[in-house]
Amino acid sequence: MSSNANVYTCDAVTTRCLVQDSIYGYFPPSPPTPSSSLSSSSSSSSPQLYLGIKYKTWTFTFALSCGCLVEAVGYVGRLILHHNPFANIGFIMQGCCLIMGPAWLAVGIYLTLKHIVKAFGPQYSYLKPKYYTWLFIAGDCFALSLQAVGGGLSAGAIGNFNQLSLGSNIAIAGIIMQVVTLAIFAALAGLFFFRRQLARRNGVPEKEGTLVNPQLQTLRFKLFAGAVIIAFSTIFTRCVYRIAEMMGGWGNPLMQDQAEFIALDSVMCSVAAIALTVFHPGFCFPQMAQSISFGQRKILTTLENNGPNNSTSSSSSSSSSPEVVLEKADVAKPGELYFR
């Protein structure tokens, strides 16, 4: 039974400040549970960094590594709350980091669609491949900004219920924005594959230069595609759960149900991070991993300016990187951000 103590005047569990009076209403699970989530998050970041440097998937690696590290900090906060559910630093670390972490993981998912569209036929897409990167990362950054502002306001609302509620509402708006972005992503990806499958069923010939690379017909790529679908599904499930969890306000019954939190937040994010690490695009999706150096872009630009007659001599200049296939779509214009 709650003692009805003011949660803002409590800094430890006492006879006056019961654990039920804390925002989460319980001691977070014994160390093995948050420690396992911390371990899965932190252990995924190291392979991500290694594989990203090896295969030069810079943006994908940055997003996934940030997501894993932010999640790890959040679970450190849960470990602190296990020892003291009124610890403000633990609340700040969990509240801010576990809200924002999945948004970084979503960036890695968004990056894949651009390269899949390029590989399987841009003619089936309603958008040019490069716009997928800008559209979804912009939407995710906006959602992440709202979540950061909301988490910051909530974390600093010591003794101020109105500020706590405002921060919660802004964070909810950020998570809703993330769900909307994920839904649009799923819709456009579904339309792309539907149009491509329909064209193949009707016997429409592939355009010249868009025949699917044999590398994309291997089991390795299919496992990568499955990992992306799993990661998308788990992140989407987690976001929907977090909306429901936070809609009732701080300390509501759903927020105080630790079993649901573990199943629908911790496990979902861990599965997404592990799936995108085990089936990394560096060795599962070569088209996404190929790096184009500044010198190679300059060579390709020269080829385009001088015409096809010089293609033989110029192409030999880039033979030092035989695995790299130079494409016009891969050339970064001056001042253009180049996402991999």
TrEMBL record:
Compositional bias ranges of the Low complexity kind: 311-321
Chain spans, region Disordered: 303-340
Biased composition (Basic and acidic residues): 325-340
GO cellular component, one term: fungal-type vacuole
Places the protein is found: Membrane
Coiled coil: none
Transmembrane segments: 58-77, 89-113, 134-158, 170-194, 223-241, 261-279
Membrane topology of the entry: Multi-pass membrane protein
Pfam families recorded: RTA1
Keyword Transmembrane helix carried by entry: yes
Major localization class: membrane
Keywords: Membrane, Transmembrane, Transmembrane helix
Keyword Transmembrane helix in record: yes
Protein name listed in UniProt: Sphingoid long-chain base transporter RSB1
The species this protein was found in: Letharia lupina
